[in-house]
Design goal:
heterodimer, A: about 270 residues, Thrombin, subunit H, 6-stranded antiparallel barrel, 4 helices, 12 strands, B: about 0% strand
């Protein structure tokens, strides 16, 4: 039954697999980059096909609706301008106070918009790929956010694309702070495997007084995520390991299941 | 079996991998992403030769791992482990029966993620596992099983439409010709 050519084919495939698995990380990343470039024509095709219905809808939108939208945008723009003036005044005051107390000056976040182009096809990872790479200044461990809150961090960057490991993956742990009077801090780890909106906040003090609805933000500890990025809200809390520490479930602000555009945060 | 069928199978694997990475609908509706590579491997194992199976295992595995956070090459051996035994026993399998295709698709779609997970866990990778993984495994098995007969018909239709067909044998054979001749007296 087992002919020599069968042995040869089996052996060749096993050798290829073993060689690939034993390659150093850098070589693997380069190989992944090279093979990933084969999919570039399909990226273009997919984005064009996604854009087509929107373009068609735009071409048939009535003039009255467009004028209404312009009017609404003008009003929103005016509101945002007044808020920006207020924020600038607050920032100036903040800088003056910081200078008074000799505190380090806070630098504003620099953001770059990125499009989510791929989701991990394997069910045991929670990663996405974005269309920004090293050519855009992206490097490992840069935080990724949406308007709603924290999304994850860049885990590897190639020339034109980067892989982002999402909050809720085992490889994205975030030091987080609960906005309650005690300012309890813990570590955000993976939650359930099916619900992407829930994660666990663990290693909280056993005396932590957590209530549903309390906001959770990044604590700034660990050096990857700056302090103050909104993460989500406490759902419930329970005591674990015979009361050694408290663990809470957190509902994420950002909808990780339908990410389309994200912001990469540069220091 | 011809080269065209090998190209067709590999093109199918390429598109299936890209589709799995771009379509979010199965994950949103079912809670799991469906993998079509095991179903394609069943088709290749029953209809193609060993080089095609080896190519599908290597290229399909590498493409899948490239778009995923998997270590490169981890998906090759599980695909081969499914395709090779089916190919060896292909003479005993009623490959044209949709039920046989369904059962083989289910077995392959259940085995490939299980073997991949086993290999990842043996490498001490930190994976997102829990009770939900069982549900994802069931979804992958059921979807792979349902997709296999569809892939068989699609591939057969593509082969018929685009590939060359083997020349039909005609009933006439010169060695079996009955010679009618009148004996001359």
């Amino acid at each position: 039954m087992f002919k020599q050519k069968n042995y040869l084919a089996l052996g060749a495939v096993v050798i290829v697999a073993v060689v690939l698995l034993s390659l150093p990380t850098r070589a693997t990343a380069r190989l992944k980059l090279a093979v990933g470039s084969w999919f570039l024509p399909l990226f273009g095709l997919a984005s064009a096909s996604q854009q087509l219905p929107a373009d068609l809808a735009d071409s048939v939108l009535p003039r009255r609706e467009l004028l209404q939208q312009i009017d609404a945008l003008r009003r929103e723009n005016q509101l945002l301008k007044s808020q920006a003036v207020q924020t600038a005044a607050i920032a100036r005051e903040n800088d003056q106070l910081r200078a008074l107390f000799n505190w380090q000056k806070q630098s504003p976040w620099k953001l770059k918009l990125a499009k989510v182009v791929l989701r991990d096809p394997a069910n045991w990872w929670r990663t996405v790929q974005i269309d920004l790479g090293t050519r855009d200044g992206v490097r490992d461990n840069l935080p990724v956010i949406t308007e709603a809150g924290l999304v994850g961090r860049v885990s590897s960057a190639s020339y034109a694309h980067s892989q982002v490991v999402l909050v809720g993956d085992q490889n994205c742990r975030v030091s987080a702070l609960v906005e309650n009077p005690a300012r309890d801090t813990g570590v955000l780890i993976a939650g359930g495997t099916l619900d992407t909106s829930l994660v666990d906040l663990t290693y909280l003090a056993s005396s932590a007084n957590l209530k549903p609805g309390q906001s959770v933000i990044t604590s700034g500890l660990g050096g990857v995520f700056p302090k103050g990025i909104p993460i989500g809200q406490i759902v419930d809390a329970r005591s674990v390991e015979y009361g050694l520490y408290t663990e809470a479930r957190v509902k994420l602000n950002a909808n990780l299941g339908s990410l389309e555009q994200v912001w990469v945060l540069f220091p | 079996m011809n080269v065209f069928q090998t190209i067709l199978i590999l093109a199918g694997a390429f598109l299936a991998t890209f589709g799995e990475a771009t379509l979010a609908a199965p994950r949103q509706w079912l809670g799991a992403q469906v993998d079509l590579l095991p179903a394609l491997m069943v088709f290749a194992a029953l209809n193609a030769g060993l080089p095609t199976i080896a190519l599908l295992a290597v290229l399909g595995g590498v493409w899948f791992d490239t778009l995923s956070a998997n270590p490169l090459g981890i998906s090759i051996l599980p695909l081969l482990a499914v395709g090779f035994p089916i190919h060896l026993r292909r003479d005993l399998i009623l490959r044209d029966l949709p039920f046989a295709q369904f059962v083989l698709g289910a077995a392959a779609s259940a085995a490939v993620p299980a073997l991949t997970l086993l290999m990842l866990l043996s490498g001490r990778a930190e994976l997102l596992l829990g009770w939900g993984t069982l549900w994802q495994w069931i979804v992958m098995t059921a979807a792979g099983a349902a997709a296999t007969p569809f892939i068989f018909s699609l591939m057969d239709a593509c082969s018929r439409a685009l590939g060359y067909q083997p020349r039909q044998e005609i009933g006439f054979r010169t060695d079996r010709e009955i010679r009618h001749s009148r004996k001359k007296s």
